[in-house]
Design a protein that fits this description.
about 270 residues, alpha+beta, 2 domains, 3-stranded antiparallel sheet
Length: about 270
């Protein structure tokens, strides 16, 4: 009887984690570049109640009697499907059409990755640097910060689909600026990326090494679209349905605990 208590308790813990994941998705429904997550579960160990027959020879039964010991969370997976396109008025807002990631140099000097293309030109002594809203430099395909010298007016700089910074010539035609291509990286297993907050991701052994779209052999390269941002891929209706299912599963596990407690109470009352 105690087995049912622990099994139901493990189900309540697992569903609480499921609700946590769904709540996180709903709270980030308007976060630029956010990718929805889902929790997966697996069963715990099984106990053999009976494997042999009750006859004299004691042969093994073709179907054994096993009872499980509950469930646990096996993984929380991010789904890197394309988010909706949101139009803006800024030349430094970018939407990635494909599987690529921007490369950012964080405050610790580490290279991290993101799908959030909300960038700005920050003016400093060296010139105009393309940065995130936190002031972290955006890296070029050569692994260096994208910095425009004083001869370029940031307001006139545009970017093509390959991420090359372009500046108008005397005739007004945009011409690429050498060494000023926004880097895009792909991963063999993007779900293996480590989330470190602020929409930043860190490469891990599970994700594989980052593949530079400018130099590495990649099947399908991504394309950048200026004056657009990628919205969250969270579907509110789907998340609300999942939330109801998780709530019902939690209630069922709670009911199983109440039922087991009542049965144990009745068993104890037999001696009275």
């Amino acid at each position: 009887m105690v087995r049912s208590l622990y099994s139901a308790a493990s189900g309540m813990i697992a569903q609480q984690t499921n609700v946590d994941v769904i709540s996180h998705n709903l709270s980030n429904v308007n976060t630029v570049g956010y990718k929805g997550q889902s929790a997966s579960f697996k069963t715990l160990l099984y106990q053999d109640l009976q494997a042999r027959t009750t006859t004299a020879n004691g042969e093994f039964k073709p179907v054994s009697a096993q009872v499980g010991l509950g469930t646990r969370v096996s993984s929380i997976t991010s789904h890197y499907t394309q988010g909706s396109a949101m139009e803006t008025e800024s030349n430094t807002d970018f939407l990635i059409n494909g599987d690529g990631f921007f490369a950012i140099q964080n405050l610790d000097g580490e290279t991290v990755y993101t799908r959030n293309g909300n960038f700005y030109f920050a003016i400093d002594a060296q010139g105009s640097a393309l940065c995130t809203a936190d002031g972290c430099p955006v890296l070029s395909s050569d692994g260096m910060p994208i910095i425009l010298t004083s001869e370029y007016n940031p307001l006139k700089v545009t970017f093509d689909a390959d991420g090359n910074a372009c500046y108008p010539d005397e005739a007004g035609n945009p011409q690429p600026i050498g060494g000023m291509q926004i880097a895009l990286f792909q991963f063999t297993n993007p779900s293996g990326l480590e989330k470190i907050g602020d929409n930043y991701l860190r490469a891990t052994d599970a994700s594989g090494v980052p593949l530079n779209e400018a130099y590495d052999d990649i099947g399908k390269k991504s394309a950048l679209k200026s004056k657009y941002l990628e919205g969250s891929n969270v579907n509110v209706a789907t998340e609300m349905v999942n939330l109801i299912i998780a709530q019902r599963a939690y209630e069922l596990c709670s009911k199983a605990i109440t039922t087991s407690d009542t049965m144990m109470e009745q068993a104890n009352n037999l001696k009275r």
